[in-house]
Design brief:
The protein is mostly helical. It has one domain: Up-down Bundle (Ferritin), CATH 1.20.1260. Helix 1 packs antiparallel against helix 4, helix 2 runs antiparallel to helix 5 and helix 3 runs antiparallel to helix 4. This is DUF892 family protein.
Amino acid sequence: MAEQINLDKDDLITFFIHHLDKVYSAKSHLLKRLPEILYQVHFSDLEEAIFETIKVVELQRKRMAAIYELMGALKNEGSISGLTGLIDDSFEEIKTHQDNPELRDMSILFYMTNIEATEIASFQVLQLLAVKIRKERIKELIKENYNEAKADKALMLLITTKYLSTV
């Protein structure tokens, strides 16, 4: 026998905004941190991918700002935990390979792929929530961010394969 689950629409909206805040905060934090590694990379394809990621993240943040406006909500950038903590941990690990450009590049690829995978999962859940709260335009904006995160992850995996094939 199936259980009936009754989630209040207002509760879903609050939940949606709270978690959008977390993703927005992580995107803002990532924009601050990416320049640290942009010109440290050894493999030119990776440098281009990071530069492209910066442009994509800026666009994703603009879409999220539009979502806040559509929902009549204010951005509340969260604490340095969760997704932003993942970013900081990743960038600290990358620094441990400062003296080895090849391992630094592999570390960048590894962590950028993980960051994108987390963003993909976050955008998937937000998209499902947007369906439940019946906000079609918001669902579309989240889907665009989701598709870009998927494309970025695929690009990082492609570059990793190409990078390893030159070893």
